[in-house]
Write a structure and sequence with these properties.
CATH class of the largest domain: Alpha Beta
Pfam families: ABC_tran (PF00005), OB_MalK (PF17912)
Structural class: alpha+beta
Strand content: 25-35%
Number of strands: 22
Helix content: 10-25%
Low-confidence stretches: none
Keywords: ATP-binding, Cell membrane, Membrane, Nucleotide-binding, Transport
Shape: globular
Family: Belongs to the ABC transporter superfamily.
GO molecular function, one term: ATP hydrolysis activity
Protein name: ABC transporter ATP-binding protein
Largest sheet: 6 strands, mixed
Distance between the termini: 34 Å
CATH architecture of the largest domain: 3-Layer(aba) Sandwich
Oligomer: single chain
Bound molecules: adenosine-5'-triphosphate
């Protein structure tokens, strides 16, 4: 397995890019740790495939370098990078059996049959196809063929990295969960460096140790699922991750207090923020009350989603979402919302501003 270094990396599909907007991938410097599982998460068109294709060697970046364990592979073709890839749609040999397909990457590298058999058995068990090893791939469903593609991607232990590009798109919902769990287990057992591209937050958060959130060609945050939830570095992360996403309130800040409209709230810490200042609060950290301090708001509807309720409120014309426990009463005359201090994040021009104590730490 390898550490992957992205050094001063950027890519534009235009021959002569003139401004940052011309770059599908904006400048990025990062070390991706050896043996860690990363998910590349973002909306369609944000640059995920561009970044993955640069790492796999399908695309040569217009700027910067890619290093595997310190070795510059920027110009090296895919075949020389010793990586395994699984794409959105199945890539299998129809005339071969399931076993033949799974064994192919090992045979191709001259591995002894005695070593191949147990490895194929293990991967077949993982994808739930032990009973179909002698079947020809032709005639299998797209779902089954994609499981074979996943198995083939995972059968070698000596790869620098395993790259997955939305691999579960054609898999049925139940099996998706099963395969994600298996991938996670495989990662724990073998410690491969894995990069998994998806636009689905559940997939990213359940699979990865670290989630790389991309927005508009830029990596806006790399963090654990918990970090992305508690301390979104950019308003996009707050909005994109979580269901519903983070609420944002325009505010003026002075020291440890903020004004939102006519209301004043205590922030629990001091901040220095300039530009467009917003307070971000996830729906989990909003509470409802009747009278007293807080921001004026009225309940507009309640959605019961099973394990909890989503309360939609109207706060001076803006919609605010709050999560309430299943049995929690929602008083009809409730007219104020307030924020749990630990759930408050401050943003200046969309980027998180650390509280002054945290900044110094
Ligand atoms: N070959 C290309 N030539 C020109 N522009 C491209 C090319 N490939 C991608 N782009 C543009 O680069 C930007 C990033 O695209 P990319 O495919 O990397 O995003 P993505 O996040 O993987 O999206 P998706 O999930 O839809 O595949 C988009 O604006 C896209 O239109």
């Amino acid at each position: 397995m390898a550490k992957i270094t992205l050094d001063n990396l950027a890519h534009s599909y235009l021959p002569k890019p003139e401004s940052e907007d011309d770059f599908a991938l904006k400048e990025l410097n990062h070390d991706w740790a050896d043996g860690e599982a990363y998910a590349l998460l973002g909306a369609s068109g944000c640059g995920k495939s561009t970044l993955l294709n640069i790492i796999s060697g399908l695309l040569i970046p217009s700027q910067g370098r890619v290093l595997f364990d310190g070795r510059d592979v920027t110009m090296a073709p895919t075949a020389e990078r010793n990586i395994a890839q699984v794409f959105q749609f199945p890539v299998v040999y129809d005339t071969m059996t399931v076993e033949g397909n799974l064994a192919f990457p090992l045979k191709n590298r001259g591995i002894a049959p005695a070593e191949i058999a147990p490895r194929v058995q293990k991967v077949a068990a993982m994808i739930g196809m032990e009973d179909q090893l002698s079947r020809k791939a032709r005639g299998l469903t797209a779902d089954a063929k994609q499981k074979i593609s996943l198995g083939r991607g995972m059968v070698r232990e000596d790869v620098n990295a395993l790259l997955f590009d939305e691999p579960l798109t054609v898999i049925d919902p139940h099996m998706k969960w099963e395969l994600r769990t298996q991938l996670k287990k495989l990662h724990r057992d073998f410690g491969h460096t894995m990069i998994y591209v998806t636009h689905d937050q559940t997939e990213a958060l359940t699979f990865a140790d670290k989630v790389v959130v991309m927005h508009d060609g830029r990596v806006v945050q790399i963090g654990t699922p918990q970090e992305l939830f508690e301390r979104p570095a950019h308003t996009f992360v707050g909005y994109f991750i979580g269901s519903p996403g983070m609420n944002l309130f325009d505010a003026q800040i002075e020291g440890n207090r903020a004004r939102i409209g006519e209301a004043t709230i205590d922030l629990g810490a001091r901040y220095a923020a300039t530009g467009r200042v917003q307070i971000g609060v996830r729906p989990e950290f909003i509470t409802l009350s009747t009278g007293g301090a807080g921001i004026p708001a009225r309940v507009s509807r309640i959605e019961d989603v099973g394990r909890h309720k989503i309360v939609r409120l109207d706060a001076g014309g803006s919609e605010v979402s709050m999560i309430a426990a299943e049995g929690e009463p929602i008083p009809a005359d409730a007219d104020r919302i307030s924020f749990a201090p630990e759930g408050i994040n401050i943003y200046a021009d969309d980027w998180r501003v650390a509280p002054q104590g945290e900044e110094a730490a």
